Amino acid sequence: MIIKVLGLDLATKKSGYCFKENKQLIDFGLIRADEKDDIDHRIMQIYLQVKDIVKKYKPDYIVFENTPSHNNAKLGRELSRLHGCIMSLVFDSNGKMGYRDYMPSKWRSAIGTYDGTRNGVRRDVQKQRAIDYINKKYNLDLVYDPKDKTGSDDIAEAICICDAFEIIEKLE
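Above: the chain sequence. Below: its structure as tokens.
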């Protein structure tokens, strides 16, 4: 049975994506929205690019991070709206595509990058661990730099979310 999975690390300015087929990394990259646009236009830009990726690869599942609770209610609302748009792609597939959304601690624990420590929840630590995991497993050379806007950390986390799906769902 062929399993095709689209993993997304969603955000409203730039989102990482990863496509895997039968656990093989096929494609990955960064989806960008124009940072100067208002939130509605950025969400639309991300949505349309994800929609194109879905059309291209026809995944069986879309997997993404559940909207974590934020101290920033505005950010939480914006991410929830974006997630709703992505879920509409699943609903429009008439049962041909499913989805999974995992809390950050669940997918990070599944791949072994979250250790439950206070230090382990720091954003810079999480991002670096995702980069290290992906570079080692897939022989990539992504670099995490908090000031860098290349999105390497977003790409790495999208791939990590795909890997976590395979582990959590016990794909053979």
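The chain has one domain: 4-168.
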